[in-house]
Each structure stands twice: as C-alpha cells, then as structure tokens.
Amino acid sequence: MRRAALLWDESFLWGVMAHKAIDACGLSCDLLRAEDVRNGRLREYDLLFVPGGWASNKLKALGSDGIEAVKRFVHDGGSYLGFCGGAGLATEDGLGLVPVKRRPTKERVPSFSGRIRINTSDHPLWQGIAEPVFHAWWPSQFLVDESVSVLATYGEAMTDSFSSDINVGDAETGDGWMELERIYQINLDPRRLMGEPAIIEGAFGKGTVLLSLVHFDTPCDPNGKVMLRNIWNYFGCEYIASDSVASAHRDALVLNVAPDPLLSELEDAANGLIELGMRNFLWFWKNPLLLQWRRGVRGLEYCTLYVMLKEISELLRAIKKNQKAPDLDRTMERIRALLLPFVEKARRLLVRERFFMQNGHITYERCDDREVQGLREELFSRSKSYGGLFKELVDEIDGLLYKVMTLSS
User: Fold this and answer.
1) What is the DSSP pairing of strand 112-120 with strand 162-163?
2) Are the C-beta atoms of residues 106 and 140 closer than 8 Å to each other?
3) In a shared domain, residues 270 and 236
C-alpha cells in the first residue's frame, strides 16, 4: 500500500481538523514539517496532503528548497492532495502544479461558510455519496485551464449556511442580496458560486494533483468521512488496522506531562475569550471546531487559539503518567508569557469593537476608533493572514501541539 503524509506547517486549526478527521476514518497519514520536506523525507511517501491555511504562509514555510522538493516529488509520480488553502498552494500563484489561478478577491464571494450542494461528475471519488452536500469554509474560487478536469462544481447553498454573518435562509426571505451587498460592499449572494469549480484534478509530470475547495475534513460530516476514505482508496493509500487498534496504541503511551494547573490556566484564558464573545453576541459555535462570528471582529484567530490549546490538553490528559517524558514545562511557560497579555488586550479590543458596532459601520480591518486600530495592529498586524502578537503566540502553540501529536501517534 502507498503511504500518505500531511504537511503540518501553517495549518493550525485546519491541521487539527484534518488530523482528527483522518484519525476518525482510520486512515494512515504521518505528519511532516517543511523542514522534513527540505531534508528529503518526501521520498518515503506517495501522497502529500496539504490541509487548509494561508497558502502564502505555507509557501514561505517551505522556502525555495521545499518548493522544489514538492514539485520534484509530484513530477516524479507522487500525488498531491490540497484542501482550501492547500489547494491554493498548488496553483500558479504558489507551487505551479496546475494551470489554475485564483479568482481576484473583488470577483469572489469571499465570506461564504457552511453547507453547499455540489454537482458531481462521473468519477470513482463519488462512490457511496447519495446526496452530494458538503461544507465550504471561506473558500477561494478557481479560474481553470481546459487541461484541468473539473470533478465538481458548486450548486445551491443550504439555508443554514452563511455569507459573512448573514444566514442564507434568512437573507432569501428578507430584502435580498442586492441591498445587502450594497451595505456590506462585498459579494454576498451565494448564487454567484453556482457553476464554479469546487473540486479539480490535474497532472504535473507523472504525478496527480487533486484540489478541493470543499472541506471533506469538516467535523460531524458523514459525507466527508465517505469522501476521505474514497480519496485514500483512489490513491491506494494505507489504512490503520482499525479505529480500536489506533486508540489502543494511543492509550499504551505513558508520559509525565506538565503540571495540571499550568495547562488549566492556558485553557481557561483561551476559553475566557470565547465566553466573552458569546455573551456579547459576537459569535457562536457552528460545529465543535469552528465559530460563526459577526462582521467587525476577527473570529478565526480566537477560535484557533482555543481549539489548539484544547487539543493539546486532550492529548496530554489522555496519556497516562507512569513514565518520564520530554520536558514540556518550558514551552508551556513561554506560551503563558505570551498568552496572558494577549488575552488581556484582546478582551479590551472585543468589548470596544462590540461598542462600536452599535455606533457605526466597522469591519475587521476598518474602524475609526484609534484605540481599536492600535490594538488590532498590535495583536494581529494589518495583514489578513496571521501577524502581530497572535502569530508569535500561535507559532509557539503550534510547536507544542506538533510535539505532543508526534508523541501520541
């Protein structure tokens, strides 16, 4: 059987989502970092899976040597699987594995999230899918060359989905999308997605490139589970012997983890931000890993911190404490030194953003209040992708999570 690897760098929340989905399906997939790719580790594998996340940041993490290693891997017969940001990484703006561009932002529906029906082609990937409804999370949109096979296009958005912070079902019974787009000054109508490529397949040298703007790794999605298994079958990749064997292997590991009070303090700090946002009507949970937030605040970043710290906690607490383990305390202390000041400033920012929502039109990047703008720049920078104190913090958390995941695998 062929072996699969998941490129971890710059995936964060999306990496957790992908890894949990793969594990729940009983699929075999090792974690690799960009450093491993640069050091030639791709030679050990047949499929490289790149989950969501900012494609530009993934490109930087790989560096020129990593980029060449991935291109050589696929050209020589390896397979590339990309979801969302991982799909964007393979386009002409990134690795250049397929003659595909991303539609300019002004032409996209940039803030769609939730369930959407797709129109499928005749392809073995769709085996066992009776009703092709899946999840898309703020996807890009493709402009494809005729040499690329379109395996699925977008169809009708489900009424429980959202465009920005607007429920699709509610918008269709209200004043309509045209007026909302005038107010929001972005494309919102999900019908603009209809007929656009959602899943595509192409070739690069001897290799196969499969790219999806649909997240088959979404939690609690039975169709997504079927699709992940279909993809592994399509590429001939390995399964874990069984879910119970995988669980037994994890349970057999024994580590002496960092003191519980420190771990709990980190969790409580992140959870406090989530609770503050909920009681101020800034967001709610759409599924166990993703928030739906109001326009005017950043939600994904806070959600990312919470989910990653929760995952670290669950992994460590599931491991017995009978044997000496690597010292994780120092990393925890570094995270604490970054997290607590970040949380204090973020709480102030969220409350002020909540206030200004009542007094004017704001977006996550525009607000007339100087304190809001100053806090935003310090915490997140002016970049849409991750920056500021948040990036410093999430990188530390990511390093710890990767270490814990490799120890518990």
Assistant:
1) antiparallel
2) no
3) no
Tell me the one-letter amino acid at 261: P
Query: In 129-221, which residue ranges form alpha helices assigned H by DSSP?
Result: 168-171, 177-184
Concatenate the DSSP letters of all residues of 235-250 into one string.
TTB-B-S-HHHHHHHH
Residues 273 and 323 in one domain: yes
Give CA–CA dist 257/293, Å, rounded: 34
Tokens, residue 95: 């690795």
Do 333 and 194 fall into the same domain? no
| Rounded Cα gap, residues 48 and 41, in angstroms | 11
CB 336 within 8 A of CB 265: yes
**16-55 core/surface letters (b: 16 or more CB in 10 A; e: else):** bbbbbbbbbbbbbbbbbbbebbbeebbeebbbbbbbbbbb
Same domain? 145 vs 72: yes
Residues 188 and 233 in one domain: yes
What 3-state DSSP class applies to 25? coil
Is 248 inside any structural domain?
no
What 3-state class would DSSP assign to 374?
A: helix
Prediction pTM value: 0.93
Domain boundary among 214, 243, 272: 243
Together in a domain, 376 and 400: yes
Length of the chain equals 409
Domain count of the fold of the chain: 2
Whose CA is closest to 271, among 343, 369, 355? 343
Give residue-wise pLDDT tens across range 61-111: 999 999 999 999 999 999 999 999 999 999 999 999 999 999 998 999 999
Least Cα distance to 76 among 40, 52, 50 occurs for 40
Q: Nearest 5°: phi and psi at 27?
A: -95, 150
Query: What is the residue range of 306's domain?
Result: 253-407
**Which element (helix H / strand E) includes 262?**
helix 260-279
pLDDT digits (tens, 9 = 90+) for 339-394: 999 999 999 999 999 999 888 778 888 888 899 999 999 999 988 889 999 999 99
Asked if residue 265 and residue 230 are part of one domain, the reply reads: no
Contact 215, 134 (CB under 8 A): yes
Q: In CATH, what number is assigned to the domain containing residue 193? A: 3.40.50.880
The domain boundary residue, chosen from 224, 243, 262: 243
How far apart (Å, rounded) are the C-alpha atoms in residues 86 and 94? Answer: 10
Residues 238 and 261 in one domain: no
